[in-house]
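Same chain as my last thread, 200 residues:
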Amino acid sequence: MGRASKREEIAEAAFRQFHTRGFNATGINDIAKAAGVPKGSFYNHFSSKEESALEALKRYADTLRFDMLTAQDRPPLERLRAHFEFLSGDTVDNGFVRGCLVGNFGAEIADHNEEIRAAAKRGFDEWAARLRRVLAEAQEAGDVDGSLDVEVTALFILSAWEGTLIAARVDKSEAPVDAFFRTVFGGILRSSPPSQVTSD
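reply #2:
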């Protein structure tokens, strides 16, 4: 009987190492050690560290709870807020040390590896598209201003979130996260009050 594949253990270890330590600070030895396998086992399943990083991006997307954005059990803006509340909770619970893997890779290696840059861009584009659909639902429901450009706003919210994670890691506090929620949900997405009709 052949030996069981260790691909899952290696892929998961690579994901965790990249998310915690970053791409450049993570070596194949680190991944193999975290997976509990010899270094040679890594190359049985991945041709390079870059290939394992692409797999890590796929795994990261699965942790982002995009299902919260599409569940029909609550209004669109509540779903949008719940999505970011989940992400902010993960950030706080982990002591502001990890950030967003897509953003981390984008900042760290996008200028040096076209394949990873393209994968990170796809990740952001798909995320923004999901946000755009929720904003369009909210607009159709009359919960946000009808003149809001949902495509631009979705991109802005995602960009603001990535900046929030960086600021929170630097500040080691929830202040940037609080500012994100106040500005996005208490400002940008706050519906305009209905016009008051007065009689003479």
